[in-house]
Amino acid sequence: MTTEAPLLRLENISKSFGAIQALRDISFEIGRGEVVALLGDNGAGKSTLVKIISGGLEPSTGRVIYDGAERHFTSPADGKAAGIETVYQDLSLCTNVDVVANFFMGREIVKKYFGIPVLQEKAMEEVVAQAMASAGTKIPSLRTNVEHLSGGQRQAIELNRFVHWGGKLVLLDEPFAALGVEQTRRGLELIRRIADQGIGVVFITHIMSQAFQVADRMVVIRQGMVAGDVRTTETSPDQIVHLITGEALGGRARTADQTNGQAQHAG
Fold first, then answer.
1. Residue range 146-171: average pLDDT?
2. Confidence of residue 249 (pLDDT cuts 50, 70, 90)
3. Residue 24: predicted pLDDT
4. Share of the chain above pLDDT 90, in %
């Protein structure tokens, strides 16, 4: 993290769907190079909030300050153009074409010879190879169709593509739900490498151990409101569970040392 202005600041975000209040007065920040775990039960409002950040929904009230300016995204395309990408468990890759084609989708390198456009396959493959190597991603052949790759490899393609094309904020919505232990480990390492490049990361997960491995901060949403915003080093899994479920903790999350000290004193 750096001391510069936050990459994203949400100010008093609320969202209503008719009589249903999905979000109430949500406020928090995400720094450049910071990984924030967004936690909460099903129906807490996490996905609604992600859609507002990415441009899939407009807030009913409140402000989205992104990259130094107030933004009013009206579609996910607006968010993408500003450098915001959402990665879901079901990735947005074309499985019937190879890695290079997916990486350059819509951005192909083309040169004209005698007025005829010719795809620069070798140049594109070299760019992809360098991007994958820099991220520590190993794929046997970049000419393999994506349908033949593992879930972890597919995820790495999407994330590396995002970084290469100048992404600034990535929203990961349960990205490892269908992956095995080793693929998840590599995915968590990739998240940290992405953050080390100054990119902000929002990581939604139901698996507490993943959040504690990778997140700098944890924001807990309960019933559409921020129930806690704590640094990972200053909390514990038990305290986060309390915040998620609404059990009393004296009004705010406490550090593990405080909790242990109070328990010892009570004993």
1. 87
2. low
3. 96
4. 57
Which of 163, 218, 188 lies closest to 30, judged by CA? 218
pLDDT of residue 89: 64
Per-residue pLDDT, averaged over 149-170, amounts to 87
The burial of 123, by beta-carbon neighbours within 10 Å (0-12 exposed, 13-18 middle, 19 or more buried), is given as: exposed
Bridge pairing between strands 110-113 and 116-119: antiparallel
- 16: tokens are 């209503």
Q: Label residues 97-112 b or e (16+ Cβ within 10 Å = b).
A: ebbbbbbbeeeeeeee
CB 227 within 8 Å of CB 220: yes
Q: Sheet of 8-17: strands edge to edge?
A: 20-30, 8-17, 61-66, 69-71
- Which phi-psi region, left, alpha or beta, contains residue 166 (left: φ > 0; alpha: ψ -120 to 50)? left
Helix, strand, coil tally for the chain in percent (to 5): 35, 25, 35
- 110 forms beta bridges with 119
Q: Phi/psi of residue 61, each to 5°?
A: -145, 165
Instruction: Give the long-range contacts of residues 242-245, CB within 8 A, separation 24 or more.
Output: 243/39, 244/39, 244/40, 244/41, 244/44, 244/220, 245/41
- The pLDDT of 163-174, averaged and rounded, is 90
Q: Which pLDDT value is given to residue 3?
A: 56
Residues facing 118 on adjacent strands: 111
Residue range 65-92: mean pLDDT, rounded: 88
| CA atoms of 31 and 201, how far apart (whole Å) | 9
Beta bridge partners of 153: none
Q: Classify residue 145 as exposed, middle or buried by CB count within 10 Å of its CB (0-12, 13-18, 19+).
A: middle
